[in-house]
TrEMBL record:
The protein, known as: GLOBOSA-like MADS box transcription factor
Organism encoding this protein: Dimerocostus strobilaceus
Domain K-box: 61-138
Compartment(s): Nucleus
Residue span, MADS-box domain: 1-38
Domain of life of the native organism: Eukaryota
Pfam families listed in its UniProt record: K-box, SRF-TF
Organism classification: Eukaryota, Viridiplantae, Streptophyta, Embryophyta, Tracheophyta
Coiled-coil residue spans: 61-88
Gene Ontology molecular function terms on file: DNA binding; DNA-binding transcription factor activity; protein dimerization activity
Keyword Protein biosynthesis annotated: no
Amino acid sequence: RRNGIIKKAREISILCEAQVSVVIFSSSGKMSEYCSPSTTLPKILERYQTNSGEKLWDAKHESLSVEIERIKKENDNMQIELRHLKGEDLNSLYPKELIPIEEALQIGLTSVREKEMEIWKMHKKNEKLLEEENKQLT
């Protein structure tokens, strides 16, 4: 039956040049769908909402939309900050805005040098151990 309904939707779409969308949920929860090639489901739902006057999106969806926009803006700001830390687009900044960037870079440089020293000491220690082991073997 499900395949028959989808087949009919396809036929209506072709024969009548109509925009058709069908979504079917079985009793087990499996979803089947068909949408005319000339459109998308969101476009059909938007058109339905406009023509029927019913609002399909509730307040929860609206708040999620606002949250998505907030996260996008935050992401954009972080991308700009990352470019600044990479040394790009610095000409547009005022000296007061450069100070925190300089401090962040200084802290990063210090931690890189500490890690470098740690690795260097570990290599020296391993080198001494290998020399001792080599002496014992000879």
